[in-house]
Amino acid sequence: MSDSLFTPVSLGDISLSNRIVMAPMTRDRAGEGDVPTQLMVEYYAQRASAGLIVTEGVQPSPVGKGYWRTPGIHSAAQVEGWRKVADAVHAHGGRIVMQLMHCGRVVVPANRGFEADVIAPSAIPCPVQVPGPDGTPMDCAMPREIAAAEIPALLEEYAAAARNAIAAGLDGVELHCASGYLINQFLNPASNHRTDEFGGSAENRARFPLMVLKTLAEAIGPGRVGVRISPGNPYNAMDPSDPAATFGPFIAGVDALGLAFLHVADMALPELDTLAFLRANFSGAIIANNNLKADSARALLDAGKAQAVSFGRAFIANPDLVERIAADAPLAKPDYALLYTGEARGYTDYPAYSA
Ligand SMILES: Cc1cc2nc3c(=O)[nH]c(=O)nc-3n(C[C@H](O)[C@H](O)[C@H](O)COP(=O)(O)O)c2cc1C
Q1: 29 lines ligand 1 (CB under 6 A)
Q2: pTM for this one?
Q3: In whole angstroms, what is the distance from residue 350 CA to residue 340 CA?
Q4: Is residue 343 part of a domain?
Q5: What is the Å distance from ligand 1's center to 254 Cα?
Q6: Can you tell me the distance from the alpha carbon of 330 to that of 320, in angstroms, rounded to the nearest whole number?
Q7: What are the CA-CA distances from residue 47 to residues 44, 210, 293 (Å)?
């Protein structure tokens, strides 16, 4: 029987030569002006045998930046930088989509290197510390509430970012709706206390997130837009309770848009079989993630619970993860102390396997 991990698949307009996806991972290696560096070109090219790479989170605007040395997609220089990344991945036969990550309230201003607002659905600070420029945990800034009148401009920022990603040659975008960043802040009752049409009921909390997805689909075509969620994930002070209620109206709206894929970090919740819930409410392709090994990933594909699977940490120290899985070769372990140093060490110096 053929190995489901190595069966080609199309996610919307994006055709993958295998079903092993590299999950998005922030690595803090952007250069001056939040422009992708040559080091990043090398890093992504090394991992291009993945059926699809989802880039690290990329800010669609300066206001979307919260962490140190994260790349953007709102300036001409950033577009040129990403073009080198996309060209290198394509030259190695890979596919790559950009994760659009607006941090919302999860911002340490010292990480930005410029002055900009900190915005969120409500003026509630994120009660979690985030590493500052030297790695020391620092408090997040107090955000100001986004005015309803600002929503059209925010949507236009997302549309411009998606058009820029396509102009840079990427194959599409993934909207980061997980892990407590801006979109998740709208969806979640802990961070959204609004009393207008963007707050209150789960339907209202899903309104802005769905407007963003519709805007992205109109900007670059629904077959090039994916979405990432992590129901029940308490990261960045999200209320993890009742994930089906929080995500139900959102998933219904996502399903209607006909997007390329739904990427889910399955938190293995006691109260919800997340993959079964999504399969029952979403008719498109699902990329499953979180703590997978080759065997458990294959089992999800074989059972039809997912159409592709993603690996995060395994790609850090195994640039040739796809080849290692194919050869049943051992996996190298990453050095977690080197995740965010900004250097080549612990980033591009993990070798491919040699028996
Ligand atoms: C260093 C690191 C950075 C990450 N950055 C992001 C990110 O920018 N966006 C995102 O959606 N998830 C991010 N994640 C989560 C991963 O995409 C993935 O969901 C997580 O590692 C679980 O998958 P795994 O068990 O295969 O590692 C990050 C994870 C790690 C380890």
Answers
A1: no
A2: 0.98
A3: 15
A4: no
A5: 22
A6: 11
A7: 5, 31, 17
Ligand 1 pocket, residue 290 CB under 6 Å: yes
Beta-strand ranges (E) seen in 80-141 are: 96-100, 119-120, 130-131, 137-138
Neighbour-count burial for 45-54, b at 16+ CB within 10 Å, e otherwise: bbbbbbbbbb
What amino acid is encoded at 318 in this protein? N
Report yes or no on 345 lying in a domain. Answer: no
Closest protein CA for atom 22 of ligand 1? 290
Domain range for 148 is 4-338
Distance CA 154, CA 149 (A): 10
Query: Is residue 296, in this structure, part of any structural domain at all?
Result: yes
| Number of compact structural domains in the chain | 1
Q: Is 265 in the pocket of ligand 1 (CB under 6 A)?
A: yes
Counting from 1 in the atom list of ligand 1, the atom nearest the Cα of 310 is 26
Distance 265 CA to ligand 1 centre (A): 9
Q: Among this protein's residues, is 336 annotated catalytic?
A: no
pLDDT tens, position by position, 129-167: 999 999 999 999 999 999 999 999 999 999 999 999 999
Q: Could you tell me the pLDDT band of residue 354, with boundaries at 50, 70 and 90?
A: confident
- The string of pLDDT tens digits covering residues 205-218 is 999 999 999 999 99
Q: In angstroms, what is the C-alpha Rg of the chain? A: 19
Residue 56 CB–ligand 1 contact under 6 Å: yes
256 in any annotated domain: yes
- Which CATH number fits the domain that encloses residue 87? 3.20.20.70
Name the H helices within the chain. 38-46, 76-91, 151-167, 182-187, 202-205, 207-220, 243-257, 274-281, 294-302, 313-317, 321-327
Distance 289 CA to ligand 1 centre (A): 9
66 CB within 6 A, ligand 1: no
- 40 C-alpha vs ligand 1 centroid, how far in Å? 17
